[in-house]
Specification:
The complex is a heterodimer of chains A (about 325) and B (about 150). Chain A has about 325 residues and is α+β, with helices and mostly antiparallel strands. Chain A has 2 domains: about 45-115 and about 295-315, no CATH class; about 125-285, Jelly Rolls, CATH 2.60.120. Helices cover about 30% and strands about 35% of the residues of chain A. Chain A is built from 4 helices and 15 strands. In chain A, strands 1, 2, 4, 9, 10, 11, 13, 14 and 15 form a 9-stranded antiparallel sheet that branches. In chain A, strands 3-12-5-6-7-8 form a 6-stranded antiparallel sheet. In chain A, helix 2 runs antiparallel to helix 3 (about 75-100). Chain A is elongated, with a radius of gyration of 32 Å. Chain B has one domain (about 35-155). Chain B contains 2 helices and 8 strands, in the order ααββββββββ. Chain B has helices spanning about 5-10, 15-70; strands spanning about 75-85, 90, 90-100, 105-110, 115-120, 130-135, 135-140, 150-154. The longest helix of chain B is centred in the N-terminal third of the chain and has 57 residues, at about 15-70. Classes of the chains: A alpha+beta (about 325), B alpha+beta (about 150). Chains A and B meet through helix 1, helix 2 and strand 15 of A and helix 2 and strand 1 of B. Strand 15 (about 310-315) of chain A pairs antiparallel with strand 1 (about 75-85) of chain B.
Chain lengths: ~325, ~150
């Protein structure tokens, strides 16, 4: 009997070995799966960090440009100098902060673009948006390749009254800002009021199709600030003005029925275009005038981390249409 | 067993027959165990390989999307997104194929076990048709002649 029982034990041993080998195989497969799922669930913000870093540089340099323009009006050389020095400081600050996360960053100015600011200030009080020669319909800029920081501040009571007029219908007397590209559709930004509700109304119309967008309204206070390029009316987002992002370049910028709006405005355009001096007032006189102003800065942004190597050149033109 | 009559009585009992019966039953049991366990492990391996390829595909898609996003910021001259990936899934090597189109198709395949996983990602930047062996990868922007994303082995 003894030899038979020994044989049985051997078979049990073989069976156990087979089960053990199977379990080891399963463990290897499971381990492989766990490793991959561990990879999948790791936090991975590095790629989006590069985009975020570029956005921070864009915002910072945009602030520098606006500050330099405000501090040194009509002195382009000093604006460029200050922005270039400021970008270097911004780069150092960001690089120091990024180094703690094992990321190398750098930002340098590659080029600057000169521009012209056309503005009518509020220093001498409200004035109609007419030319220096008091033309009601006049061309502010010819052949603009780009426009930024186009802001208007209007007194509501000066605007054409549309009380009782259905939206989309026009009296023909409202103040219009017309963007007329050499190819593509013309766009009108109409500014008027409803005296019944004491509201400023801004409407955007595709002149070629006749389709109107908006209205964007403001019934606070007695004045309304319209940021055409940032698409806001009295600080609130205005989707209708976003339609202008589709504007083709180059375009002419015209004011029509400029007697139907009083207040101040300012806009910056690229230098290599025609601003008709006969429409502008001499320095110190009331009416629209022009100033030499930095239009945009090209900045080379570098970002290097363990996972991402990124280098790009961004154009920073604060308050520009389409970006 | 206490009765000497019964112990001495070995009629109808053959050592050979007992041995053969024992061996046969044991062989059947172990064979069944081998076949059952083998196919179970194979099924698990195939399922795990599919899961792993899916995860790897999603990571490749995420890197393509990240590179695409970076490639559309300003005028980029360098975009490289590195990714550490396993060289094999459940012990077998695999291939990563990228087919340009709208959407871009990502195909991952192993031969043993034979598993194919496909996924799609929408990108704004064109992608070069590529096949690379699994392992560490880099998605880079090829700027000549025009912007195109390319996947290389790192």
């Amino acid at each position: 009997m003894a030899p038979v029982s020994r044989d049985r034990a051997q078979l049990l041993l073989v069976g156990g070995l087979v089960i053990a080998v199977g379990l080891v195989g399963l463990a290897i497969v499971l381990n492989s799966g766990i490793y991959t799922h561990n990879l999948a669930s790791r936090a991975d913000p590095i790629a989006s960090e590069a985009a975020g870093h570029t956005a921070v540089v864009r915002d910072s340099v945009g602030g520098l440009v606006e500050f330099a323009v405000r501090q040194h009006p009509d002195r382009e050389g000093e604006q460029v100098h200050n922005v270039t020095a400021g970008v270097s400081n911004v780069s150092d600050l960001l690089a120091r902060e990024a180094a703690g996360r094992a990321v190398l960053t750098n930002a340098t100015v590659a080029a600057t673009t000169n521009g012209t600011k056309v503005n009518q200030t509020a220093e001498t009080g409200d004035r109609a948006f007419t030319s220096a020669a008091v033309d009601y319909d006049w061309e502010v800029v010819t052949g603009a390749e780009g426009i930024r920081a186009f802001r208007m501040d209007v007194r509501r009571t000066s605007l054409d009254d549309h009380a009782g007029v259905t939206f989309g219908d026009f009296t023909g007397d409202e103040f219009n800002v017309t963007f007329a590209p050499s190819s593509g559709d013309d766009w009108n930004v109409s500014v008027y009021r409803d005296s019944g509700t004491d509201t400023t109304i801004v409407t955007v119309t595709n002149v070629d199709t006749g389709r109107s967008f908006g209205p964007c309204t403001d019934d606070t206070g007695s004045r309304t600030e319209i940021d055409v390029t940032d698409a806001t009316v009295a600080g609130e987002p205005c989707d209708a003005l976003r339609r202008l992002d589709a504007l083709a370049t180059p375009f002419d910028l015209e004011f029509h029925n400029a007697g139907e709006a009083e207040g101040s405005y300012g806009l910056v355009v690229v230098d290599a275009l025609d601003v008709d001096d006969t429409n502008l007032a001499d320095a110190g006189d009331p009416g629209p005038s022009e100033l030499d102003t930095l239009y945009s800065v090209d900045v080379v942004v570098r970002f290097r981390s363990q996972r991402v190597d990124f280098r790009t050149t961004i154009t920073v033109a604060p308050g520009e249409l389409d970006g | 067993m206490d009765s000497p009559e019964l112990v001495a009585d070995r009629r109808g009992v053959s050592t050979a027959i007992g041995y053969v019966l024992t061996l046969s039953i044991a062989t059947l049991l172990i064979g069944g165990l081998l076949v059952g366990l083998g196919s179970f492990v194979d099924d698990q391996r195939t399922g795990t390989a599919r899961d792993e390829l899916r995860v790897i595909g999603q990571q490749v898609a995420a890197d393509l999307a990240a590179a695409d996003r970076l490639a559309r910021i300003g005028s980029p001259t360098e975009v490289r997104v590195h990714r550490q990936l396993p060289d094999s899934v459940t012990g077998a090597g695999y291939l990563v194929e990228i087919d340009d189109g709208s959407p871009v198709r990502i195909v991952l395949r192993t031969e043993s076990p034979e598993v194919v996983v496909e996924m799609a990602v929408h990108l704004g930047t064109p992608v070069g048709d590529t096949t690379v062996r699994g392992g560490d990868l880099v998605v880079r922007l090829d700027t000549t002649p025009s912007n195109e994303l390319v996947i290389d082995s790192a």
